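Slide 14.
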Amino acid sequence: MSSDFEGYEQDFGVLTAEITNKIARVPRLPPDEKKQMVANVEKQLEEAKELLEQMDLEVREIPPQSRGIYSNRMRSYKQEMGKLETDFKRSRIAYSDEVRNELLGDDGNSSENQRAHLLDNTERLERSSRRLEAGYQIAVETEQIGQEMLENLSHDREKIQRARERLRETDANLGKSSRILTGMLRRIIQNRILLAILAVIVVITILAAIAFSVRGH
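Slide 15: predicted structure.
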């Protein structure tokens, strides 16, 4: 089950990184491109929310003794989601015509706001980079786990094959033993029949000898 959560987690990291990058670009786009980009970001934000819901469902299915670490990660992701939504709202109105007209009246404030906006974009890009690195690390760990599972399955298959070969050998040996015992039993029965016949012949011979002896007297 945790593998499903980590898959959703990786998708969420990649998606939020893309959203962060697009949010940083929105204020600098022409009106037409800005409208299209805003619609794209809104769609991706909905996808991110759906991923969070899936991750939340996965966490609820985790045994209570192992749920703590995943719950902490979920809180962090929800906070990140809230931050993205806030940044998106700010980005939609940043450098709009009304704000630009107000800034033109005060060059000092304009420069300061531009520097603050650049710093904010830099922070978002750094967060995106960290999320991508985290997603890559999760992917590497998942691949390693998969390789270990494949190796274990390969070892188990070899053990099963060896067990089958031993069962075949045992079955063949049992067959040989059964045939040997059957042959021995047959010979014992034959010997007993021969002994019975000999005993009957001996008895008849003795009786015949006694009969001749009686008649001779």
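Speaker note: The chain is about 95% helix and 0% strand.
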